[in-house]
Design a protein that fits this description.
- With about 270 residues, the chain is mostly beta strands.
- It has one domain (about 5-265).
- It contains two helices and 15 strands.
- It has helices spanning about 5-10, 10-30; strands spanning about 50-55, 65-75, 80, 85-90, 100-105, 115-120, 130-140, 145-160, 165-180, 185-190, 195-205, 205-215, 230-235, 245-250, 260-265.
- It has an eight-stranded antiparallel beta barrel.
- The longest helix has 18 residues, at about 10-30.
């Protein structure tokens, strides 16, 4: 490659294919919910509609975008309507959450990886400590290999009217890796790295943003430099804000070699 920018640009298609395959495999292995919560993403028996929000990260620009829509129920099936596009299909099942789920690359609304959930305009964050435990999916390009990983997530929000503090972590990240020189494709990758959210806070009404992150127990080719760019957004989902979905991206290719896109979903 002529330079670092060309290198990452030419690996983006390969990266997208890895993302799609990893997410499909994960969705297929999720256990079926024993109980369907009322007005959840999986409640097809109700005839009441729900407002939904799709939060995604672009695979090329790493920018985060939001789209509002409607979850339409008719007592028998569920349809997702966003920007006049309507999809009647099975929503990917995250077995630890009911009101938010991770959406794979290639979705019909903007083709980007992210989270989809039911929102409540009247929800106000209550004072206190709120812990959201769940699962995560993360894609990493460290300049040597592409990783499609699944792991556990935990986000802790300590909130009051004068100050809010968010911390968290993604651990046990394991899955598949493919070396960019193609000498290894879909090789097993276990306990690749822990992603630590050192701090964050309420950045706009009922929205959380991460301020900085750190890689620990790192088995990647390299670590983050001090010049990484972090974009993020975490949103409360469900009628009482009892679930949270977050999206984040990390670009560190000006002085480093790492790119990261990730999503977490969790419940109290």
């Amino acid at each position: 490659m002529n330079n670092k920018k060309d290198y990452y640009r030419n690996s983006s298609i390969f990266f997208m294919v890895l993302c799609i395959l990893s997410l499909i495999n994960c969705a297929g292995s999720a256990s079926k919910k024993e109980k369907i919560e009322k007005l959840s993403l999986y409640d097809s028996v109700s005839s009441e509609n729900s407002k939904i929000e799709l939060v995604t990260v672009d695979g090329s620009t790493f920018a985060i975008s939001n789209k509002l829509g409607l979850l339409e129920r008719n007592g028998n099936s569920i349809s997702i309507i966003i920007n006049e596009n309507k999809l009647t299909d099975t929503i990917p099942n995250n077995y630890k959450t009911n009101y938010v789920t991770i959406i794979p690359e290639g979705n019909p609304f903007n083709s980007s990886f992210g989270v989809l959930g039911t929102t409540n305009d009247d929800y106000i964050i209550p004072s206190g400590k709120h812990i959201y435990n769940g699962n995560a999916q993360v894609f990493i390009n460290d300049g040597n290999a592409l990783y499609g990983l699944n792991g556990n997530s935990s986000l802790v929000l300590d909130f009051n009217e004068s100050k809010s503090v968010l911390t968290g972590e993604i651990t046990s990240l394991s899955g598949k890796k493919s070396l960019l020189n193609l000498s290894c494709r879909d090789c097993v990758a276990e306990n690749v790295v822990d992603i630590i959210f050192l701090s964050g806070s309420v950045c706009k009404t009922n929205r959380i943003c991460f301020d900085n992150i750190e890689l620990r127990n790192n088995n990647l080719k390299t670590n983050l430099s001090k010049n990484y760019i972090l974009n993020s957004e975490a949103v409360f989902f469900g009628p009482d804000g009892n679930e949270m979905g977050s999206i984040f991206s990390v670009q560190d290719t000006d002085t480093g070699t790492i790119e990261i896109r990730g999503a977490t979903v969790g419940s109290k």
